[in-house]
Amino acid sequence: MDRVRRIIHAASAYEKGFYGQGITTVVLDTGIYPHIDLREQILTFRDFLNKKKKPYDDCSHGTHVSGIICGNGKKSAGRFMGIAPKSRLISLKVLDRRGNGNMIDVIQGIDWCIQNKEEYQIRIMNISVGALNEQGDKKEKLLVEWVEKAWDSGIVVVVAAGNMGPDDGSVTVPGNSRKVITVGSCDDDETDRYQNKIPYHYSGRGPTCECICKPDITAPGTNVISCTTPGRREHFYGRKSGTSMATPVVSGCIALLLSKYPDMTNVEVKMRLQESAVDLGFPKRKQGWGRIDVQRMMG
After folding, report:
1. How far apart are the C-alpha atoms of 83 and 60, rounded to whole Å?
2. Triad 78, 259, 242: Cα angle to 5°
3. What is the pLDDT of residue 115?
4. 204, 182, 247: which is closest to 25 by C-alpha?
5. Residue 155: CA atoms inside 13 Å, Cβ hemisphere, count?
6. Which of 185, 244, 251, 259 does the annotation list as catalytic?
7. DSSP-H helix ranges across the chain
8. What is the pTM of this model?
9. Per DSSP, what are the bridge partners of residue 46?
10. What is the pLDDT of residues 38-54, one digit of tens each?
11. pLDDT surpassing 60 at residue 207
12. What is the dihedral of CA 8, 203, 109, 97, to 10 degrees?
């Protein structure tokens, strides 16, 4: 995470006292393990699969994503601190131990966010999950409709572009939504020495079948170190790669932005990302506006 923070110039926000304080992000994923770096950040937990009351993560994916957003780095003396370590987190378990999910569970999680937005002061929704767009599929269209309902309620919805690249039109659902902020990985051409499950150039590319330019923005997503569950390699921290990791980097950056400008709307946040992104010289179908940069974004 120290590498990621350097790439996106996160220190520029910390120097001015902005750590995501006052901002709550909802993570729809495989749940969350009460890791030492996350215990103080968790506001509440909901399990839409097994209806358990206490936080848990039988996959480690959701814990890793959550650590990228707001892990406080206690166990590593700050080395593996998340992007917005003073922000707060709500974990909704909508995916199973393999990282798979029922569309209805995901939609129920989104609906919960909309219904509880005011009570928990929810500002950001992070969805590091996606499905291939089988044109005309009613369930996939329904998922897009629901993320757009969340967006229309005022929540900043941040979703992954998926790992089905590099072909054109490989952005996954709901990242093909016109409204939400879709995140690709800016370093998907780097060697993944720790995981052989993911190919080079994995980041989903646009345009969508409706000719929408996606992704909107990119962030580091390869070999990202973050919190993990007990029994995993490196015990307290582990490495993962994918747009699932790039997405919470952007969510964390948005938490920093909103801690400075709490009255910003989601549309204004999206415009600020567009104006401040660093053009990496890649085609728009790969990078969108470019790579996120905190220093430029914060103004």
Report:
1. 19
2. 55
3. 98
4. 247
5. 31
6. 244
7. 2-7, 11-14, 61-70, 103-115, 117-120, 138-152, 243-260, 266-276, 284-287, 294-298
8. 0.95
9. 92
10. 999 999 999 999 999 99
11. yes
12. -110
Structural domain boundaries in the chain: 2-298
Catalytic (active site) residue 61? yes
Topology of domain 2-298, per CATH? Rossmann fold (3.40.50)
Count the helices and strands in the chain (H runs, E runs): 10, 9
What are the tens digits of pLDDT across the range 84-142? 999 999 999 999 999 888 889 999 999 999 999 999 999 999 998 876 555 457 778 89
The amino acid present at 280, given as its one-letter code, is: L
Q: Amino acid identity, residue 75?
A: K
DSSP letters along 71-106, please? ---GGGTTTT--SSTTSEEEEEE-S-TTS---HHHH
Active-site hit among 57, 60, 61, 226: 61
SS3 38: coil
Which residue do the tokens 């601190």 mark? 81
- CA–CA gap between residue 279 and residue 218 (Å, rounded): 10
Which residues share a beta bridge with 278? 291
What percent of the chain has pLDDT above 90? 85
Buried b (16+ CB within 10 A) or exposed e, 47-76: bbbeeeeebbbbbbbbbbbbbbbbbbbbbb
Three-state DSSP class for residue 27? strand
Stretch 157-162: mean pLDDT, rounded? 97
- β pairing state of 224-227 and 237-240: antiparallel
CA dihedral (158, 164, 170, 176) in degrees, to 10, reads -20
Residue 216's pLDDT is what?
98
Which tokens belong to 217?
Answer: 């923005």
Whether 80 and 245 have beta carbons less than 8 Å apart is answered as: no
